[in-house]
Amino acid sequence: MKERIRLLSAVLCAGQVILSAFTAAAGPCCFVEVGVDHILKDGTTGMSSNDRLKWYLEQTGRPADEAVARAQDEISENCVAILNAGGEIREYVTQTTDNDFYLTHNAGGAPDVNGSAFFDSRCEFFPADDQVIIHGHNMKGGAVFGRLNNYRDVGYLCRHPLITLETLAGTDYYVPYAVTDINVDMSAPNYFLAIVWKFDPDSFRQYTGYLKEKSYYRIPVDVEFGDRLLTLSTCSYVYSDSRLVVCARKMRDWETPEYLEDLVSRSTLSGVSPDAIAPYTGGGDYERLTPQDMSGLNYETEEEIPYIQEAAADLFDE
Q1: Are 264 and 161 in contact (CB under 8 A)?
Q2: Alpha carbons 130 and 159: distance in angstroms, whole number
Q3: Residue 247, helix vs strand vs coil
């Protein structure tokens, strides 16, 4: 009897495997209840995140976000997301395999000194890596990430507590957990590697812990391993090679936008200052720039960022 039971169980298991294989080949409607990770094992190797997302939506019969789909049709297929941050930043986010291209081209692919906001080419937003990074120029006129400097005001952070990222799959909410400047000069003693997209529990704790420790604000938003991270990064002038980063995590299933807005509204100054993180010590790209070069920079100048006058008063002297 036991042998018959074992044989029957084996037959049933085999039948389930065959049925799964059959339904996987039968058409989109068969995938509706199948998880993302399972689907992506089938035929998506080598696809970009956006193509993989399109494939997923087709397989599940789910509608694509209209705004992003329209941008891909009318502007460029590389417009893969729409970012809203701080109430004043609304940017198409692009992605390609070349991180340099959108430094000098707009979202439509035309040459443009402003460039475009773009996902780091090494990050995948579908299925999402542990962290995705969006780069953008810090333009003097406020274009692209020029207004990211508004986050240097805690009152501004409190008034604009949520970041939204809209892809073909719809809109996700993110909440800031740290705002600071980091040193990306690999030869500097305080160099911080921000371009990380995969974590284990220890590296996640070290990474987010450093950023919260160096944050200019005490933001009562916790971060746990398993949270999806979003980092907005732009050039800053605390020292010769630095980035202002607004670090956020994705809203959890049980949270609401209102709940997160209330948390961020309680943010206070931490007492950490840019110069305490990384005082300017000279060197870097600036020493190779002439006064004429400096006057032609499209980034923020010391006139807009007061702490630069203290950190490097003669940096822009003519």
Answers
A1: yes
A2: 27
A3: strand
Contact 278, 242 (CB under 8 A): yes
* Residues near 272 by beta carbon (within 8 Å), at least 6 away in sequence: 180, 213, 214, 215, 216
User: Are 40 and 49 contacting, i.e. CB atoms less than 8 angstroms apart?
Assistant: no
User: Which phi and psi angles does 219 have, rounded to 5°?
Assistant: -100, 120
- Phi, psi (5° rounding) for residue 173? -100, 140
User: How do residues 197-230 score in pLDDT, each as one tens digit?
Assistant: 899 999 999 999 999 999 999 999 999 999 999 9
Residues 110/99, Cβ–Cβ less than 8 Å = no
**Among 273, 270, 277, 282, CA closest to 305:** 273
Whole-number Å distance between alpha carbons of 313 and 4: 86
pTM of the model: 0.76
DSSP 270: -
Tokens at 22, concatenated: 């059959």
Please name which of 217, 63, 96 lies closest in space to residue 104, comparing C-alpha atoms.
96
